[in-house]
Amino acid sequence: MRIVLVGAPGSGKGTQAQLLVKAFGVPQISTGDLLREAVAKGTDLGFRAKTAMDSGKLVDDATVLGMIRERIGRPDAAKGFILDGFPRNIAQAEALEKMLEDLATPLDSVVLLNLDLGILFKRLTGRRICQDCGQVFNVYSAAPGAAAHSKECGDTHRLIQRPDDKEEVIGKRLEVYEAQTKPLIKYYEAAGLLRIVDADADVDTVFKRVERAVFKR
Ligand SMILES: [Zn+2]
Predict the structure, then answer these.
(1) Cα(58)–Cα(42) distance, integer angstroms
(2) Fewer CB within 10 Å, N side or C side of the chain?
(3) To which H or E segment does residue 19 belong?
(4) Does the active-site annotation cover 127?
């Protein structure tokens, strides 16, 4: 199973990726994690990445692609991988395609967790965190169930909104996501790889849809 997982902030992408990892025994490959790991290990690619980041530049595609190539060559990726956070543009998508062709391991599908922007906006801006126990709530969701009870707080939490969850910040993030993702989605649609999953449901329902999408030919 070789897939790219695409989804906006708030789409539940992280959760779905974890479920796929558990169900299929393939690793989730996040370019952010790879960069941190390469820098920590001091590999050649890590050194190149660190040099770029230290001077405030983006790490170039060739470096990132080299890391992905090395990562999918490890034994735990023999059965496949879930790529997360890459590609972000057409040039990267083309470079990825070429590399995977080289390795004779082309992508099976690109799964898009699709959610209305209005819903994403509510999910993200409605987020509140208890400053005492760290539990996460959402002001737009139904009343919190038993899970809301915590040792420190009992049933009474002190909720705050993190600066990152403010409306302007979220609006900007979603705009950037839209602008970045639209061309990519078209690209993969044209390649016949795109699978659109309606992500407006509970975690288990969405996962069933993801599974079906992954295996749809
Ligand atoms: Zn609390």
Answers:
(1) 18
(2) C
(3) helix 13-24
(4) yes
Alpha carbon distance 86, 128 (integer Å): 29
202 pLDDT higher than 60: yes
Q: What angle do CA 8, 9, 12 make, to 5 degrees?
A: 85
- Position 123, amino acid: R
Give yes or no for a contact between 199 and 123, defined as CB atoms under 8 angstroms apart. no
Model pTM? 0.86
CA-CA distance, 8 to 27, in Å (whole number)?
20
Q: How many residues does the chain have?
A: 217
* Domain 2-116+172-215, CATH: 3.40.50.300
Catalytic residue selected from 41, 162, 172, 208 = 162
- Measure 121 CA to ligand 1 centroid, in angstroms: 24
88 is catalytic: yes
Q: Per-domain residue ranges for the chain?
A: 2-116+172-215
Neighbouring residues of 32: CB distance < 8 A, sequence distance ≥ 6? 85
Span from the CA of 147 to the centroid of ligand 1 (angstroms):
11
Distance separating alpha carbons of residues 217 and 109, to the nearest angstrom: 9
The predicted-structure confidence for 41-81, as pLDDT tens digits, reads as follows: 998 888 988 888 888 888 888 889 999 999 999 999 999 99
The pLDDT of residue 56 is 83
